[in-house]
Amino acid sequence: MMVEISRQRKVVNAVMLSLSGLCTVVVIAVLFFILGYLLWHGISSLNLDFFTKLPKPSGESGGGMANAIVGSGKVLLLATAIGVPVGFLAGVYLAEYSGKAFAFLLRYVVDLLNGVPSIVIGIVAYAVVVRPMRHYSTFAGGLALGIMMIPIAVRTTEEFLRAIPNSLREGALALGATKAKTVFTVVVPAAISGLVSGMMLNLARVAGETAPLLFTALGNTFWSKGWLAPTATLPVMIYNYAIAPEEDLHKQAWAAGFVLLTLVLLINVTARVIIARGPASARR
Amino acid sequence: MATPQAIRPTQINVPIETESVKASPMAKLKIRNLNFYYGSFQALHDIDMAIQPNKITAFIGPSGCGKSTFLRTMNRMNETVRNTKVEGELLLDDENLLTMDVTNVRRRVGMVFQKSNPFPKSIFDNVAYGLHVNGIRKKSVIEDAVQRSLEHAALWTEVKDTLNRPASALSGGQQQRLCIARALAVEPEVLLLDEPCSALDPIATLKIEELLFQIKNLTTIVIVTHNMQQAARLADSTGFFLLGKLIEFNDTRKIFQNPGKKETEDYVTGRFG
Amino acid sequence: MATSTLSQQDSRLAVHSLFKRARGGDEIAYLLTLASAVGILVIVGLIVVELWINSQPTVHRFGFSFLTGTRWDPNGDHFGALPFIYGTCVTSLLALLIAVPFGVAASIFLAEMAPPGISNVLTFLIELLAAVPSVIYGLIGIFVLVPFNRDYLVPVLTHLFGYLPIFKGDFYGVSFLSAGLVLSVMVVPFIVSVSREVLLAVPREQREASLALGTTKWETTWQIVIPNASTGIIGSIFLALARALGETMAVTMVIGNTPKITASLLSPGYSIAAVIANEFAEASGSLYVSSLIFLGLVLFGLTIVINALARIFVITTQRRGS
């Protein structure tokens, strides 16, 4: 007969289980620290000028980031206009049309693209747009971010379309609808809430990207002169101001960081909530 | 279905009187007034039972009747399911099992599951695992115990040359016997088996029944089965469950030949549902 | 019924042309989706080709010695990448060293201990960490972590372990250490979210079999559940490694941007991504630009290999789990 289980084993059990809980608490505490710190420093540095004024020349205090806010908006609009359609259509192809071998290849390549560091995408956008055109541009920045949006767009689309039951497709086909009609008027609308929130997550992910913009959209202390001219963007502004020596610019960086993070997290949380509720409504 | 003439329970069984089942002071497990809930759903109602040492006790009944739930309260395996509640008394050697250290309960009351679940380790390591966590480090002791357990589980001759191969390479029946060996290695006082043969073919089933017969002198066996012939072949006593209630618990021969309740009779004669 | 043969023919024609048009739409939709799919292959091909072609001048000039050279001298047109490769590896490994224990422990808590409702909420919060833009991590790094390291952490470390070569030398704040710490926070969510998934995929029967032998919760987790999920957990670590290798902004902001190979974690250093971020826009001379692009190619190759390994690991566990 074996002895009762030892005290030591019980102690090890309790200690290790508590430690794992403690680690979880530490990780989450870091998140709240970041949020709290940005809230504290961001809000105190934030004012109306931040949203309406242009940056002041170095040395002068005050000013804002109106041009960077608009610039970020333009770059993200372009990125969405490039990345979402390509990714969506390719996702439709994967879910509805593709043969096995090609699907395997495409998924592999999409994953590969998803793993490419953003700075490398920046280099490529530089090489194919900036260098031939001989100047930095909003377009080059949008293209870089757009390429970065493609993989998630493909995966999201494929995933949500696959979640739509086949009976729905068969129902439409049985009524004499063509394959394309079935896909685009029955299957896609059935998955629309998932698709939209997936694309929102996708946008939130690239909205904070800085590295690929450094040598594509570059930066600009004035209003950008159009899609083919360089533009300021929020993330690049944060970077430039954070490494600048002036105290006043640091404050602006905190304000911009606060605005950026709020935006990114808002989109993120909204999208996740929609997705979390999505399957239930789809089943209904 | 194969008919295992060699192990017909009727030839080996010492019949137990109905009264002694309930009142025996030497019962290994005594259950009094046991109620069990999944959330607000009551799965077991007022179960009373005494399980005799070194006997095989079988539970039968239609699926969803609570027999597996009852089995899983006996080593508190149900606690791994959230939102469950037990009320009543469960005594193991007159000690309240519900207030004992849960790890200790499970060390003393082993369990074999419906689906064989060998760990992704070698055959040897599967059997040695329980010894290892219980602090036994001496190689010779472990080797002896592994061999003994595999012999009890009637698996030794088949695997003695391949102890270091992964357990997943074994057939379904062998895997289940390995799980029995694994459970036996920690020398449990009670061995619970939850429909251990439901996924096996008749020949593998027969092997397991034979080995259970061999090991009942080592431990007290409680088996849940959906197969009435199996209960009739194996068990000394049998309990019939229906809708979370223990309808009848008695000497196996009595349950199958002269049941005391109408429901039991309907079920064992196949008139049920 | 039809009133005249003519109108009947008309309507038949109309139906026929509608049918044709619909068929045409079908074709167009198919071709559009196919074109997008092929377009992605082209884009990825283009990335590889652009990196390859544009790095040729450096490849021809320095060959393999580019990767082993330690001198980075744009003015003298001499380029050696080892300090950057070294910095990328040191910071990434340091990040893993910190992030893996925390991440795996947290995933154990979330998968094995916390009730599902709480686990989901906590996982959601941890995954939000992954949504925080890296430039924000850099911001916190510069203004919070670096001063903290200078004033509190490093004095303690040097006091306790000052005899170790990794904690020798002066400390200015920006350093391998600071970069590794920031990276560790950034990659933790990847480890947690993937590891938790693979732990949850371990069959219930495995846990029950172990618990039924009289093992404690921890013994079951450590000796049965984790080995069952081990390849998936390793996969999550590789995934985190790939992230760390390619991470640019946060590292650039706290590493110190000094090409240097030294054992001391307190020293400022440089990483591949950081040097590209800092110097690319201002690089003049084709060899300079080509060298930076070659660095990009190296980074690209590294992350692809690591990502592929991660995927193989994660997929094998998921298959086994199901």
Could you please describe the fold and organization of this structure?
The complex is a heterotrimer of chains A (284), B (273) and C (322). Chain A has one domain (48-283): MetI-like (MetI-like fold, Orthogonal Bundle). Chain A is built from 11 helices and no strands. Chain A has helices at residues 7-45, 48-52, 66-97, 100-115, 118-133, 138-162, 166-174, 179-190, 192-207, 234-242, 247-283. Chain B is globular. Chain B has a 6-stranded mixed β-sheet with strand order 6-7-8-3-9-10, sandwiched between helices. Chain B has helices spanning 9-12, 18-23, 67-73, 102-108, 123-133, 139-152, 156-159, 172-185, 202-215, 228-234, 252-257, 262-268, and strands at 29-38, 41-51, 56-60, 84-92, 95-96, 109-112, 190-194, 220-224, 237-242, 245-251. Chain B has a domain at 28-119 and 189-268: 3-Layer(aba) Sandwich (Rossmann fold), CATH 3.40.50.300. Chain B is α/β, with parallel strands linked by helices and 273 residues long. Chain C has 2 domains: 5-48; 61-321, MetI-like (MetI-like fold). Chain C has helices at residues 5-54, 56-62, 65-68, 82-113, 116-131, 134-161, 176-200, 204-211, 217-246, 249-254, 272-279, 286-321; strands at residues 72-73, 78-79. Chain C has a two-stranded antiparallel sheet with strand order 1-2. In chain C, strand 1 (72-73) and strand 2 form a beta hairpin. In chain C, helix 2 (56-62) crosses helix 12 (286-321), helix 4 packs antiparallel against helix 5 and helix 9 packs antiparallel against helix 12 (286-321). The N and C termini of chain C lie far apart (60 Å). Chains in contact: A-B, A-C, B-C. At the A-C interface, helix 1, helix 3, helix 4, helix 5 and helix 6 of A face helix 1, helix 4, helix 5, helix 6 and helix 7 of C.
